[in-house]
Amino acid sequence: MAVFDANIAVAQKMYDIVRAGDFSKLDTIVTEDFEIVEADGLPFGGASRGRHALRELLERIIPILRPSDIKLKSITANENEVVGLLDLIFADGDGEFIMPVAEYFEIRDGHISRIVPYFFDTPGLTQFIARRG
């Protein structure tokens, strides 16, 4: 398998684990010094580090976000980076809110070492979360 394909596969595995809700498996696909950096403008913004950081962050924010769907639109890679483009779909009594997201991954030795998600409308997402309660 080409390195590009292997890097895409590890990112895809992360998305599959998140969709399945079995966050404990995330610890097996990240490095010991893993880091995720969320936008400061979000209620869960800031950096989290360590082997369990991704699992712990998702266990904390999924109940806040409560997406009704995650649609992976495209994924591309090079020797040590992956970018995934996705839509987070949210629903409430006022309809649907779609948040486009670009997620930047750094890959080292077949494991994810860093993720930086770029939410295209952090104020809109923050307002939606506050409105939904």
TrEMBL record:
Q: Which Pfam families match?
A: SnoaL_2 (PF12680)
> What domain of life?
Bacteria
* Stretches assigned to the SnoaL-like domain: 12-114
Per its UniProt record, what Gene3D superfamilies does this chain match? 3.10.450.50
Q: Which InterPro entries match?
A: NTF2-like_dom_sf, SnoaL-like
Name-wise, this protein is Ketosteroid isomerase-like protein
